[in-house]
Fold this sequence. Notes:
The chain is an alpha+beta fold. The chain has helices at about 5-40, 45-50, 55-125, 140-200, 205-235, 250-255, 280-295, 350-360; strands at about 245, 265-270, 275-280, 305-310, 315-320, 360-370, 370-380. The strands form two sheets. Strands 2-4-5-7-6 form a five-stranded mixed β-sheet. The protein has a two-stranded antiparallel sheet with strand order 1-3.
Amino acid sequence: MPKFGMRTRIILLFIIVSIGGLVLLNKVFQSKHNEIHNSLGNMELSSQLREIRLHSKEDSLKAESLMKKFDSSKALVDITLGESRIATSVVLLLIIISSTTIFITVICRLSKPLKELKHATEQIRQGDFSVHLPETGIPEMRELKNSFNVMSRELETTQTRLLVAEKEMIWKDLSRILAHEIKNPLTPIQLVIQRLEERLESDCDKIKELLPESISIISQEVDNLQLLAQDFSNYAKVNQPNTEELNPALSIREIVKSYVQNFQINLELSDELRIKFDKTHFYQVITNILQNAIDASGADSAIDIRLYKERSYAVLSIQDQGSGIESKDLPRIFEPYYSKKSKGTGLGLALVKRLCDANDTIIRVKSKPDEGSEFTLIMDDLTT
């Protein structure tokens, strides 16, 4: 069943009503014509006059002349009625055509600016506030378009201001975070240098004793600065993934090799599963979640990693027994720069979320304070 627009429905309703009314009017005219024709048909003067006995020839001639005039008038009336019937039908048809044409023209003139408004509204919904409508048409439509254009310009101005304010806020937050994170490793470096300077002035011979420890501290803090720069770099350059078929169980075993010597990690992995993922992204996702689990639980607590099939999905669960996450903090853990840890940029889990989105993977988190957290990745299983 086809769906008609409002304009089509109005035009069809107008045509039906107008044709119905004109047909009814035509029937009334035809009925009146028929009544007149029947009335004239009932006037049989010729036969009535023929039945009258006329006494003189002059009377007969007069009667004959009268009958001829009557018959001629009756024939003329019949012709006139026929022509009138045809003319009425033609006039009614012309009225239908002209009124329908005028009505359709008016409807089209009204519907065209409404279509323009609809299209412009759709552009604004998509974020294009630069749209401008020509202020033409009837006065009411011109006023409506003018109001729309004013609204569009105000929205564009507001959007520009919001973008500028948002950029300023992002740079302020980034500057604050960078200043804080860079300050942390610089402080011990500065203290070490001060100690070396003091010993250099007071006791040069003991500098050799301090050098190994000082170099170790400086080296460690330089590594922290490099990790900080790497975190920011990784978050900034999440490119289009180069996806390929992976054996997630094999990849996870390779990743945890460097952790199992120092941490208790329990693996329960299904080797039959296959996923489509960017190999580098998969490494980043697992290492970030695993490092978070280690930071939360420490070296003595176990971390359980399970990989199993559920319906048509490959499900990866990484669960720790650490301090857990407060319920009020759960909605914000994937926000950039949001972190409750004493060390860290708050970009690790934000990067995980971006990489999961880029690889069409769902990530979910369950956590309770003092009971630990569970991060779950849900990926399409290619073996299904």
